Every structure is written in structure tokens, then in C-alpha cells.
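Q: what does this look like with NDP bound?
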Amino acid sequence: MTLDLSGKTVLVTGGTRGIGRAIVDAAAAAGANVAFTYRSSSDTADALVAELGDDKALGIQADAASADDAAAAVQAVLDKWGAIDGLVVNAGITRDGLMIRMDAEAWQAVIDTNLTGAFHVAKAAYRPMMKQRAGSIVTISSVVGVMGNAGQANYAASKAGLIGFTKSLARELAGRGVRANVIAPGYVETDMTADLGPAAEKLMGQIPLGRLGQPDDIAAAVLFLLSDAAAYVTGQVICVDGGMAM
Ligand code: NDP
């Protein structure tokens, strides 16, 4: 069975770099119309749309933490293609620090973008997807949301929150033919993890497969969940982490 997304429309939040970019590329290669949001990389977004073609791609500047931006992004997708078959909630940030030094602003910024941002965009897409009686929502959590991590209490809380959120959507929407699943990546080589420094060596010892993940490793699992090959999969957390969280 091939993972064919021809005729489907997918919206990916945070699609200009890293994991989101790999998901955009994979979905487009599988034949989907792909819309993606970003926060500030408008040059990258323009180049990506030019590469994929104006008729197949749409870049939308939208801050994940803004309900208005989320609603406008979903509306832009509906205006262009009339449907949303796949929603990938990927945009995320870190503001790391041990609890003793973490201030309320660092806590709130991460919760606002990673968790409340998921609420905003899923809420905007909820009704259209429900009415279509078909679709797939994929949220990008983290192995840290499953296991916890010293120095990332805010991030871990946001990513663990996404798991409960997504499972709840899966239960609410199953009767309408809309599936919702979570991908929990391990450590993936992107800008977010660029300055792991000496921690990278220590980390390697915790990864049974012995390497950091690549954005394409995550995109492959997302593509599966977006596709009809996953028609009987909902409410699941799939760790794509080299075996870290087993
Ligand atoms: P990057 O930092 O490499 O890329 C982040 C992307 O999200 C960019 O496209 C960025 O847009 C966009 N973005 C960031 N903040 C916002 C915002 N407020 N509104 C809209 N878009 C935003 O991140 P990764 O690719 O590493 O991570 C992607 C997701 O995967 C995140 O949710 C992250 O938590 C999760 N994850 C990552 C892991 C890793 O090891 N890298 C491991 C586990 C989970 P712009 O270019 O405009 O800044």
C-alpha cells in the first residue's frame, strides 16, 4: 500500500523549518495540497511555495499562540481548497531552565504556543472537519511529554497536555470519521536541538538505535497517520524516538 494523499488538503503549523518542513515536503510529495504556517520566516515560506507551486502550496504567517491567527489560517485554507483533510499541529518552542530559575513568563510562553496553540487551531478546524465526516489530526508532542525532563517542566507539561488533548479529540470526533493521534519524537536534529553541546554524547547512550532522529523520520510517521493506511488508528501516541521511551 502506498501512502497517497492525492486530492487531500493538509495544514501544517510551523512548516518553514525542521520537522514541520519535512512534513510539508512529504505531504506534497504524496500529492497533497499543503498549507503551512510560520511565525517570521517569510522569505523561506515564499521560497517553499515557489518550489512546490502556487496551486499546491500556501504559506500563512500566523502566530500559533493567537486564536485570531489560527482562525484566519484555517479560513485561508478553506478559501483556497474548500476542505481540510489533515491538520498537523507542529509549531512549538522551548524556554528551558530548571524550575528554581524558571519564571512565570517562560512557563506561559511555552504553554501558550505549544498547548493553547493546539487548542486554537484544532478549534478552528474542528467544525469543517466534523462536517466533512473525514479527516486526520496529528499533534507533535515529544518523548519529553511522556518521560519528563529536568530543565523542561514547561515544555514537558505542554507536550504531556497535548497527549490528553488529542486523545479527547479522538474520542469526540471518532463518530464523525475524524481521527486524532499523537507523534512523540525523540531528539531530532533541527534548529531546536542545535546547541545540545556535550549533552548530545550523554543522550546517545539513552537511544537504543544509537543516533539522533532526522526530520524525515518523523515526517514518515505523520504521513502514515494522515493517510488512509491509518484508517483504523485513532487516539494513539506513537513514539518515534529510536527506542528511547520504550
Ligand atoms: P524548529 O525550531 O526547527 O522549527 C519550528 C517551526 O515552528 C518553524 O517553522 C517556526 O517558524 C515555527 N514556529 C515557532 N513558533 C511559532 C509560532 N509561535 N507560531 C507559528 N509558527 C511557529 O522546531 P522543530 O522542527 O525541532 O520542532 C517542531 C515540533 O516538534 C515542535 O513542536 C517541537 O516541540 C517538536 N519536537 C521537536 C523535537 C526535536 O528534537 N527537534 C523533539 C520532540 C518534539 P519560523 O521559521 O517562522 O520561526
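The chain has a mean pLDDT of 96. The helical segments are 18-29, 42-52, 67-81, 104-132, 143-147, 153-173, 199-204, 215-226.
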